[in-house]
Amino acid sequence: MIRASEVSVGDELPPLSVRITRADLVRYAGASGDFNPIHWNERFAREVGLPGVIAHGMLTMGLAARIVTEWAGDPGAVVQYGVRFGRPVPVPDDDKGAVIEVTAKVTKLLDDGTVKVNVTASFEGKSVLGGASALVRPRP
Amino acid sequence: MPLDQSFVGRSYPPSPPYEVGREKIREFAEAVGETSPLHRDPEAARAAGYRDVIAPPTFAIIVSLKANDVLVEDPELGLDYSRVVHGDQSFVHHRPIVAGDRLTAVLHVDSITSRMGNDMLSIRAELSTEDGEPVTTGRCTLVVRGEDA
């Protein structure tokens, strides 16, 4: 697990590239209990004006969290995590799916010993999570 | 129809307890690609100082999503869920969620605002154990798209 003495403002976390396929959407729907058909039913998604099946915003949020949890070494050290959902991520019906690029940077060391990390997630060069950040409590 | 402002400040009775299972944590961790043994191996979790395996940071959505049902199904509020989009989400973990926890959620309506024909509903789910120990505070904004939006 990461130690406070090893962390400085401006540190960049190892970047992450995550692939989302239709199978991942089905798996996440089952795991989370979010069975909204826009995440698995092409016909329904088009009927409500979407370009096709889109990823759960919460799946993108959950996948992006890995950049922080893997850096922290202990997922329990993530004491706060929040995002705004930006543009939807369409997931095509093929094996390539959609690839999300995730970056993160340490932006603040707080008095209570926590570390603020800002996270970005983009798809085809455009942001899909806005104002995403996490607070991590490293070991003293 | 804009949402009724008098709902601001309202809270709902605690949801029935949700029992956090080891296998559910493992299943959720797989779904979001989390590889840590602390989600899978009780021995590893105990060695790290936890009572049992811990949940990934966004696991609390399972409990808060279920808790949202009281709001969605409240006929007085008249929320048209087919027009609802998840605007933002955050979690404050007072401690990690651990397998064996029995969590209840109390839902609070923090604000209702209107912008460009859309209603924005800010809700807060306070997750605690049955004994009242605070575990997670989940906040989200639900955007209700207006008829013309």
Automatic annotation (TrEMBL), chain A:
Superkingdom of source: Bacteria
GO biological process: fatty acid biosynthetic process
Domain MaoC-like per the UniProt entry, residue ranges: 16-120
Pfam families named in the record: MaoC_dehydratas (PF01575)
Molecular function terms from GO: fatty acid synthase activity
Gene Ontology annotations for the cellular component aspect, listed alphabetically: fatty acid synthase complex
InterPro entries: Fatty_acid_synthase (IPR003965), HotDog_dom_sf (IPR029069), MaoC-like_dom (IPR002539)
The family this protein is said to belong to: Belongs to the enoyl-CoA hydratase/isomerase family.
PANTHER family per UniProt: (3R)-HYDROXYACYL-ACP DEHYDRATASE SUBUNIT HADB, 3-HYDROXYACYL-THIOESTER DEHYDRATASE HTDX-RELATED
Listed name of the protein: Acyl dehydratase
Organism of origin: Saccharothrix carnea
Lineage: Bacteria, Bacillati, Actinomycetota, Actinomycetes, Pseudonocardiales
TrEMBL record, chain B:
Coiled coil feature spans: none
Protein name: UPF0336 protein B0I31_106352
CDD domains linked to this entry: R_hydratase_like (cd03441)
Domain of life: Bacteria
Cross-referenced Pfam families: FAS1_DH_region
GO MF, one example: (3R)-hydroxyacyl-[acyl-carrier-protein] dehydratase activity
InterPro entries: FAS1-like_DH_region, HadA-like, HotDog_dom_sf, UPF0336/Enoyl-CoA_hydratase
Gene Ontology BP term (one): fatty acid biosynthetic process
Signal peptide: none
Family affiliation: Belongs to the UPF0336 family.
Organism field: Saccharothrix carnea
Span of domain FAS1-like dehydratase: 6-137
